Amino acid sequence: MNNILETKNLKKIYHTEKQETLAVEDFSFNINEGEFVAIVGPSGCGKSTILSILCGLESKSDGEIKLNKNTKIGYMLQQDSLFEWRNILSNCLLGLEINKSLNQKTKKKVIDLLNTYGLKDFIYSYPDNLSGGMRQRVALIRTLATNPNLLLLDEPFSALDYQSRLAISDDIYNILRKEKKTMIMVTHDIAEAISMCDKVIVLTSRPAKIKSIYNIELENKSTPVNNRKDKKFSYYYDSIWKDIDYHV
Amino acid sequence: MYSLEHKKYLKKIKKDKITTIIYQITIFIIFITLWQILANLDIINTFIFSSPKRIINTIINLYNKEHLLNHIWITVYETFISFLSATIIGTIIATILWWNKKLQKVIEPYLTILNSLPKVALGPIIIIWFGAGIKSIIFMALLISLIITIINVYEGFNSVNKNKIKLMKSLNATKSQIFFKLIFPNSINTIISALKINVSMSLIGVIMGEFLVSKKGIGYLILYGSQIFNLDLVMSGIIILCIVATALYYLIYYVEKIYEKTTH
Question: Which positions in chain B touch A95 (Cβ < 8 Å)?
Fold first, then answer.
């Protein structure tokens, strides 16, 4: 398998006039092509910071990031951030417009994605008319439009209610597997991490360091909703739960 | 094919609307009639308070002999010029300030000073600079609505959701792409509500300007009327101004409605 991203001793310090805060320290990991990796940890530990650094939104303070030269990153945020004044299709074309690669062919591909993933009747609707789960699917297609092979998902379902969450995590899992993408997902939901990913990285509370890494080997690997019923699911759930230092 | 209950509900809403309108018209009629009756019975002095009949006669007279439409047109014209230029120049300046945060920080106190200064105080200077004519009036009105436009539109630009900006950055958007694809379209609503404020601000400015210098316009009619102690003329001027102001407001209101329709 191809190693598409590797980090070594990544470090991030936030500066304000009054103090400096060490957010991430000694973060080293690698991800292979086609792998789904989850990063879990207590809230506020710096999980999202890691994603922001990987996709270049924030600068790292120290350490190394090695990207395979063919790696193209797509970032999906917690909020769908759809533009209310653009219809669904036009929202999905945003990335292509920005990197100036919008043409008949790329547009057709986006329309195909919308058709395939259940948004056929909403292509010319405006975001206001869509449910939370559908909007999240649109946000994923907007991310996929520029054809990235590594997707960074930052708590992608946390704005949704529990039912939609389960349904959409199945959806997105299937879409990403089908399109043969690699994924790194940040979440605070242990069950979501185990059911969707091949590998789970547990972080300590701030400053975030790697506490443990689990390779998820279920007996019958299936879709996220089914994976939750797997015999080994609760074993992983318990171990990860114990690893995360929750302070209530 | 509504249910009976829904029909009842719709009927009630319609009835409520009609009664409101009836009340509004009744108040108007009572006010006008009372005014006229009191004038007829010499309980109020028509020389000071005028009367609806005298106002109507004055307006007809103005229309026939004094080119009333010309006066109205001048005021509307001055208002439009100053209001459009305030909106355009204000939006451009707000854009520059958005682009250059450092510049914004530097000139912020100056904007605050200009905003709190009663612009009418600058009247005498403006007349000396621009002469006693239409230029002074337009400049005065422009000054009144410009600063508030800059402040409102700039705030609109800055209130764009941080996550949307983060999204644009994650798609590698340049600063000008962020502005033209996100910040500006996201702020069109703010700009339209700035238009609404501006149109009344500009009208205030224009009337003030006409009080100071002009030989034409509704403000001139009102001022001239008070100088020759012709209260009929003053009252007529105010009534005409009410109508013009309302018409201008609704014009912008409909522009807003049309814009909303095209986007949804």
Answer: 171
What integer pLDDT is reported at residue B74 of this predicted model? 93
Q: Which residue has the tokens 């006409």?
A: B210
pLDDT tens, residue by residue, A223-236: 888 888 888 888 88
Which superfamily is assigned to A3-72+149-243 in CATH?
P-loop containing nucleotide triphosphate hydrolases (3.40.50.300)
For the segment B71-89, what is each residue's pLDDT rounded down to a tens digit?
A: 999 999 999 999 899 999 9
Is A146 at the interface with chain B, CB within 8 A? yes
Say if the Cβ atoms of B171 and A81 lie within 8 Å: no
CA dihedral A126, A127, A128, A129 (to 10 degrees): 70
ipTM of the complex: 0.84
Query: B169 vs A83: CB contact, 8 Å cut-off?
Result: no
Q: Are A199 and A38 in contact (CB under 8 A)?
A: yes
pLDDT at A247 (0 to 100): 60
